[in-house]
Hints:
Layout: E1 3-7, E2 10-16, E3 22-28, H1 31-47, H2 60-70, H3 75-93, H4 103-116, H5 119-138, H6 172-186, H7 188-200, H8 204-208, E4 215-216, E5 225-228, E6 231-235, E7 240-242, H9 249-256, H10 263-270, E8 283-285, E9 289-293, E10 301-304, H11 307-319, H12 339-351, H13 380-392, H14 397-404, H15 410-415, H16 420-439, H17 442-453
Antiparallel strand pairs: 1-2, 2-3, 4-5, 5-10, 6-9, 7-8
Helix pairs in contact: 3-5, 6-7, 6-12, 6-16, 7-11, 7-13, 9-10, 13-14
Amino acid sequence: MAYAEKRGKSWRVRYQLPNGKYDSESGFETKQDALDWGRAQETDVQRKVFVNPSDGRKLFGEWVDEWRQVMDVGEMTQQTYGSRLNAVILPKWERTPIGDITSMSYRAWQAQLKAQYKKNYVDAIEGLMRMLLDDAVDEKLIPFNPMPAGSKRKRGRHVAVDTGDEYVWPTPRQARLLAENARLLRGDQWAVMILTVAYTGLRMGEVSGLRRDQLNLLGLEYGKSLRVQWQGQWLTEPAKHTVSKGETLETIAALRHADPKRAEDVAAANEIEVGAKLRAGQKLRLAKGFTLLPPKYSSYRTLILPPFLGDLLSELLAANSHDYLVFPSQRGKPLRVDDQFYGRFWHPAIRGQDEEPSRRGRPEQAALPAVEGLADMVPHGLRHGHKVWLDGQGHPRVAVEERMGHKLQGVEGTYSHTSPEMELGIARGLQEAWEKSLTDEVDQTAEWRERRSS
């Protein structure tokens, strides 16, 4: 039962907590104010909605440490969350009591984020912050999430929202021209990589993690396929692996790192010998660096290839010397989409470059024409283009989304299914798109064929 005590010129109230113990709050001007406040807390205790005011004094950084301990997400998501927390969120809020984060202080920080970063990144930061504060509400550290609701009407002047399409995506002809530039720049493998993304819709992680054993290139004209089984990612923290029967450190390194020589790194991460005998079900830490992980959203899928792409991939595997990966880097290592990838390959391929002679150890640089209309396209734009092509050809939505690695929600997702005829129809539509791209400009078609034969 709440009761009030005189303390100097003010009043203190003591009230009962859910565990039966008493807590107190000071600074009330009158006895009645103190009693009203204390009785309100005890009413919340009875209604099981009580939030202890002292819990709100926990520092935000302390809450993040606790939250990380129970976070159950994949390795890539864990790394992404850690990066956003360390780079943006914690520098601002780490030493702030979680109960002192107000709507106004959050809005001021939000304005700073929008001035400093691109919209997609700001949205990602806000999504993580909302998750942290929602979980704090669930744990009764704070009574409500101070972040403004997205649909709530805001004061202030109207700000126009850009509703334009954020991604630049190619037509089949533009994808072909980009592939031609990629071939001149780095060789056949890079041309085939561009066309593979454009005509399968793979994510770049799925491209870098595409293993030779995921390609089935034998069979009839439309019998060739590609299995999406892994995505390749560069991790700063070790991933985990559950040992299957008969596996060794060498086979695990070959499977998850695409390099059996990295068995020594896996052994070091687990403080065991390279030749140690493993048991089925044993949990291992993999090495840091390039690692093959399950595809995003566990979107395993098998894609029927248009015949032209199956032929190009067959030729590539015959010429490619890497034991595991279909698209390794120039030096035979796992592909990394970093600043060097953009500066030395992607940007010259889409924006063109001037011819430069060889000098001071640098190889000569072939002149490349810019692919008109693609100057601002990122690699993910090829995946967007794939979706646009399939929608434009009128394929069933369920088949398109399944090929993209998406799952339909609601009733449509429950009752819609992709048939073999739908998959075959997509492959035929993509083959027609490729053949049409070759006839869009006859002179460039001849040039493409001449380049392939040279």
